[in-house]
Amino acid sequence: MNAYIDDFAAYLGARASKSTVASYRRDVELLYKRLAVSDSSVVRLGTEQLQEYLARLSEKGRSNATVLRAASSLRSFYAYLEERGLMRENPAERLSLPKKDAREPVILTTDEVDLLLSLPKGDAKGIRDRAMLELLYATGVKVSELISLELRDIDLDRGVLICRGAARERVVPVGHAAEAALAEYLSSARSAMTEDERETALFVNCRGRSMTRQGFWKLVKGYIAEAGINKDVTPQTLRHSFAVHLLRNGADLDDVSEMLGFNDRGSGSVYRSMVSDRLKKTYEKTHPRA
């Protein structure tokens, strides 16, 4: 019996989800097993021993993401021991960690985007959904920015929206298709969904309140399933697709980074590498002397 592990799981239970508790517990149990330690000896492990343990996980083929999660589990476990007065300091705080695995974002093709944007129809909800999807793809804003938009942030006369981020504001062009979808939503659907003139949110749910991230993700999943798109789509997929489609059509990376709201222009380099890879494959496939 390892009382510390049981108590650690109970300690986490009030602070984290069930899945997080379960994964952290497994990580700590694996530490006990691999290093053959007990409650009395686990408190004597130092940073160097924990670092060697993580290195062995990597040597056994564990991904960087798995090693990073194990390190996070150990930091939480030793923070619990320190809080309980069982250790003077947390040895896992000084661990050197591997870089997070780079993962290319999932991109929809232009045909898939066209299909997805054609699906919302009919009632006020469909008109709202179409406006949200069109605006997301037209501007590349984050989902959190999309659902935070207020009526004052849209200027259809100029064809722009204003993203009021924590660091700075930015003005993003909207485009004719999104403008038309927004105009229809504002002229007919929004007033049917909320009669509260005090509500300032641009996009509201069926109860007339500000749309939530969870609510938007639910509607996206529904349309992805209806479209039969067999990709690992996330709420950010249209943002990624916006960036890559612009670059493939000749847009400047700095301009795209500005529209995406990157403070560090280098943050958009992942999109440039994806476009470069595509061009290289096209070259190798089509050039007679490639």
CATH superfamily of the largest domain: Intergrase catalytic core
Proportion in helices:
55-70%
Major pleated sheet: 3 strands, antiparallel
| Average pLDDT over all residues | 85
Describe the structure.
It is a single chain. By secondary structure, the chain is mostly helical. It folds into two domains: 3-94, DNA polymerase, domain 1, CATH 1.10.150; 110-284, Orthogonal Bundle (hpI Integrase, Chain A). It has 13 helices and three strands, in the order ααααααααβββααααα. The protein has helices at residues 3-13, 18-35, 39-42, 47-59, 64-83, 110-118, 124-139, 143-148, 176-193, 213-227, 237-248, 253-260, 269-286, and strands at 154-155, 160-164, 169-173. A three-stranded antiparallel sheet has the order 1-2-3, with no helix packed on it. A hairpin with a 4-residue loop joins β1 and β2 (160-164). It is elongated, with a radius of gyration of 25 Å. The mean pLDDT is 85.
Outline the fold blueprint.
Elements: H1 3-13, H2 18-35, H3 39-42, H4 47-59, H5 64-83, H6 110-118, H7 124-139, H8 143-148, E1 154-155, E2 160-164, E3 169-173, H9 176-193, H10 213-227, H11 237-248, H12 253-260, H13 269-286
Helix pairs in contact: 1-2, 2-5, 6-7, 7-9, 7-11, 11-12, 11-13
